[in-house]
Every structure is written in C-alpha cells, then in structure tokens.
Design goal:
Structural class: alpha+beta
Number of strands: 12
CATH superfamily: Glutaredoxin
Shape: globular
Length: 218
Amino acid sequence: MTTWTTLTRRFTTVVLVTLLAAVASACGSSDASSSAAPTPLASIKQYHQIPQEPLGPATQHIAQATEGGTWSYASPAKGKLTLLYFGYTSCPDICPTTMADLAVALRTLPHAIADKIWVQFVSTDPHRDTPARLRAWIHHYSPTFHAGRAPIEQVIAAARTYGIGISKPKVTEHDYQVTHGAEVIALDRHGAMVGYFSALTGAKVYAAALPTLVKDYA
C-alpha cells in the first residue's frame, strides 16, 4: 500500500514499505438496480481482497466528532459495512477527492444498500483537526459520513494494524508535514480488514463493488 505525504509548501508522494506480507489482487441510481446481479469483486481491479485471514481488528478507540461518544475499530456499527480512511482536513487533493467520490457513489446506490454503509474518517492530524473542524469538513461531503480523532500515537498503531504507514506530523520553520493513507479500507462486522480500494479508485468503481461487499460483510 502507499502512504501520501503533504507539505504546506509542496506536495510529495512517499511510498512506504507495506505492512502486508501479501495481498491478492482479487482482483444504479434507481431501486430497480438493486435487483441486478452484483458485480463480482474479482472483476474489479481497483479492489484488492485480503487473502485467507483478514487483518485486525485494531484495538484502539477514537472520539467521534460527528455524533459524540467513542467509536471502536473492533466494534463497528452493526449490520453495516465500514469503509475506513485515514486522512486529514487540510489535505489539498487525495483526501477530499476520496470523500467526494464515496459520497457520489453512495448517492447512486439504492437506499437499501447505501443505508448499510458506514464511512469512517480518522484524522492523522488531530492537533489541527478539532471536532468542530472535522464535523464541518466531513459533512461537506455527506451528512451521513462520520469522522473522529485520537492521540496520534493511537492513530499510528491502528493504521499499522491495517497495513497503513502513518507518521507523526513534523513541524519545521517552513513546513507542516502530515502523512495519510491513500486506500479506502473495507472492514467486516468484526472490524477486520477484508480488502481495500486502491488510491483514487473513483465513484463508478465504488458503486459497482459496494453492493457485493455489503452482501458479504454487512
């Protein structure tokens, strides 16, 4: 997997050594589409199924900015597929594009499917991403999306469980450097990672894959 690093004065892409030993590339806008056969995941090259045993769950908790209280990786919302993303609100491109694409994808799905999807954003810049800022930012994309924060050490540990390399933000005289994930992680009902979407997968691909993921893991 990849981790992206953004600086306030320049944007660079940093490819980190993946924490996964191996991943197998398993790689409708109307209710009528719900009766169509789901797209086989093996035909979607941007989605990668985790071979054999899923990763996780992470044992940490985060403080939810959107609805208050706490959220646990190991106890996600019952009856829902969780899509997890590690990012930050000041990200100029990858994070907002990913959230926008997910929002478009969910709007094109039948309500019965979209209602079974929980999008969870976890800040990798908790110092600047206050609860108010997280709420305003995530709800710009969808009022149904969720966002939270935790001490950065806990975020790093949780991300590592799912094969995402996150580093503590680095502050210098001229730069504020933050790392974030690039992939959207699919969690099963127990908080284990069953697969992930490649960076910048796009709304159409999300919409094609999500009905099958909901059927299998919600």
